[in-house]
Amino acid sequence: MEKETDKSIDRSTVVLEDDGIGAVQIADDVVAVIASLAAAEVDGIYLAGNMTNEFIGKVGKKGVSKGVKVDVLGGNVSVEMVITMEFGRNIPAVCRKVQEKVKAAIENMTGLTCSDVNIRIAGVNTKKDK
User: Fold this and answer.
1) CA-to-CA distance for 32 and 69, rounded, in angstroms?
2) Tens of pLDDT along 15-26?
3) 94-123: per-residue pLDDT in tens?
4) Which residues of 101-121 are buried (b: 16+ CB within 10 A; e: fewer)?
5) Which domains does the chain have, with CATH numbers?
6) DSSP 70-88
7) Surface-to-core class of residue 22, CB atoms within 10 Å of its CB (0-12 exposed, 13-18 middle, 19+ buried)
């Protein structure tokens, strides 16, 4: 039985380096997952389709980046996120923390430069989880 070729290579990718040994490519979706997981570490926010790390480990990473849009252009990353805030949180402080975590995670894991992390607050969660 002949192995099928991976059609996911057709997605948007960025080539990090091609030093003669081979090229390293990162799909935009991977950068979006990195951003989602970094943002999920901040208390007081919920991403669209928010899942805990434990749940993600059980079901896989598909859909984790819902609510995150990433544009990679020439080694420069621009991120747009849609989040829901927990009621009673300081919106500017929490958003600043999300921006810092996302920027650091993308730059540390990929070597790309994260120029901006834009956040849109889509709502406020007033329910207390027990």
Assistant:
1) 7
2) 666 667 887 788
3) 999 999 999 999 999 999 999 999 999 999
4) bbbebbeeebebebeebebee
5) 9-125 (3.30.70.1350)
6) EEEETTEEEEEEEEEEETT
7) exposed
